[in-house]
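ingest -> validate -> predict -> emit
validate: passed (alphabet ok, no gaps, 257 aa)
predict: started
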Amino acid sequence: MARPKGGDSITPKKGGAKGRALRPRQVYVFTEGEVTEPEYIDLILQKGVPDKPGRTVQHHIENPNAEGKLRKPYRMVQDAVRTLRKVEREAKAAGLKPYRVRGGVEEGDWNWPQVWVLFDRDGHEGIREAMRLADKEGIRIAYSHPCFELWRLLHYINYTSTFGKEACGDANSRLRSRPGFAATYGRGVRTVSEQESKHIREEQVLSPKDTDGRRYREARKYAQAINKRCESSNPNDWDPYTDVWSFVEEGLLLSHY
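emit:
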C-alpha cells in the first residue's frame, strides 16, 4: 500500500471482473497542510490494519507543492471536483461501477475511486460553502476545528474543551506538552518547536503492540463524543470537532492502526 509517486491513473487491465476486484482503490487527497497530513497518511497506510483482507488502497497527494492560496478549503474543493470527474471517467473506462452502501448493503465496486479534501477551521472563510460544494459534487471531506492537531491530541487525551483565541496554536501547544511527546523526536529531547512538531512520529499515534488498535479506537471514540455536542448547523462553530477517523476508515479502508 505504498504511496504512488504520481501520474498513476485507473486504466483498463486484463483479467475481467476478477482482475477489477483485485485492483487497489485509488484515493486522491488534497490537504491543507504540506507536511503533517501527508506524513500521517503515509504512516498509517504502512502500519495500519485493513478492514477487509484483500482490499488495499493507493493514495495520491494531489497538491504536494501548492502555494498557500491554493490550499484554502473552497479552492481545494473546486480542484477536487475536476480531479473526481477525471478519475471517474477513467474508472468507467476500466469497467468499474460506482460504489455506495445503502441499507448496509454494498453496491457497485468497492475500489471505485474517491477524492478527499482534508482541511481545518483555522481562520478560513468559505467553510460552509466548501462543504456545500463538496456535498453537491461527491467530494469527501475530513474537517477539524480548530486544526488537525486536535486529532493528534485525541491520541493522548480525551480533550473536550473549546480552544482559546489563537485556537490552532493553542491546540498545538497542548499537543507538545503531552508527557512523552517531545521524546518521540529523539533521546533526551525535552521540547520541540511548533514547526518541528508538524512532523509525525510513530509513537505519537500508533497503538502499543497486541492492543488491537486501542489508541486509535479511543481517539475515534473521543472524537465522536465531542462531535455529538456540536448543535449549530454552522461548521465554523463546531469547537472542537474532528472527523478524520472517517477518512481513515471510509477512504483508506483501515480498521485501526
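The chain has nine helices and nine strands.
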